[in-house]
Amino acid sequence: MRSPKTATFVFLATLLLLVIPSTTLADSGTYRATVQAVISLTPFCTPGPSNSNCAGARWLNTMNGSAQPVRGVTVELRLDSTGALIGTGVTDSSGTVSIPWSTPTVGPATMSWNLRRADGRFHVKTKSGADIVYWNPTPTLSNGATTNNGTLIWGNGAHVNVYFATERAWTDAFSSSSLLWDRFTGVTVKVGDYSNSSYTGGKTVQISDLHTGSFDIIVHELGHIASDLASGGFSSCSDYGWGGMPGHSLRSPEWQCAGFEEGIATGIGSRTLYWQTAVQPMMFGENLEAPASAPCSITNSNRWELRSATFWRDFYDSVVDGADSSLTSYAAVFDVLDAFGGGHDNHDKNEPYNTALLIGLDDKDGRSAEDFRWVAVNQIGLPSVWLDAIYAQSCSPVGD
Length: 400
Ligand SMILES: [Zn+2]
Description:
The protein is of the alpha+beta class. It is 29% helix and 21% strand. It has helices at 4-25, 158-173, 178-183, 215-231, 256-269, 305-316, 330-339, 369-378, 384-393; strands spanning 27-39, 66-69, 73-79, 85-90, 96-103, 109-117, 122-126, 133-137, 146-154, 187-192, 198-199, 204-208, 282-283, 286-287. The longest helix is centred in the N-terminal third of the chain and has 22 residues, at 4-25. The chain is elongated and about 75 Å long. The chain binds zinc ion. Residues 220, 224, 262, 265 line the site of zinc ion (ZN).
């Protein structure tokens, strides 16, 4: 029988045999770089007495057209000779990445990254689903040392704009909801020659080439996904034909099943550009905080998407205006959407039947801001006095 000592010696000797050859044969070191891209997105806020009030604005004229950090992407380091992957790292909030690398014999190498957030929350791709890859040759990697590549700035590009807007939507808006922390994963944002930008259900948004510079359109479409994920999915509301008028805008009257979703997409998307402290959050040229130029007396304006959008701003903002005493948080919007019942009854998330079998019974004003108010009071326990006040302040959108 072996003594414990012998056993230890044999074990150590084996370890040394394993360790020595690998450390003596491999080259290794660290590669560092800061990844940036020039971002051009409108609208941006321009501070000044005769212009917008930019308190709470997250995207200013001074930032637009400048180099911004590319956050949360995986950077790969590969040898040019063989294509072998020798190290990876993830960019931080400054776009900086530090990559430990190791390879038997180091030589010329290239760093590359694509528009996928490393934590898997979202991925920006082409229309056909291909990755968009950015790359740059590295300086000579020095064995046993850190090679600093400095700041690498890519020029403005449609896809990197969309990545930037999506990353901001996640970091500056959606990530404050613990519910979305669990559900906003694996989202795909496709960019291509679509005739329009849209969300058609599931976890994919389509951004048209026409809109890759439109911050408000991109975050509106992402607002649709966030709403759908919070609601746990629901029958789509595709009838925009109220009053025989197809199409929609913030000031077009709509069936409220559709008007509700459009308003909430704009209302929750707007936090990306304007935090809850903003007194003049501008989306699609409209101030969601105080649409003073649009009094409630305008015929059918209680069917406008704008009314729902202003209702949600007042629901989560911290600006005290009129009857809005700022009682809850942005995350609570998603908690209320989650609290809708799962059925087809009044106040349920599928209240409008939206089935071809039940056209006569379809209540296209069914799922509405009014239901949101009801659920917020009866399922979440928010004060009805406050909800009634901000609802009235938004011209009491149609609903039942
Ligand atoms: Zn929409």
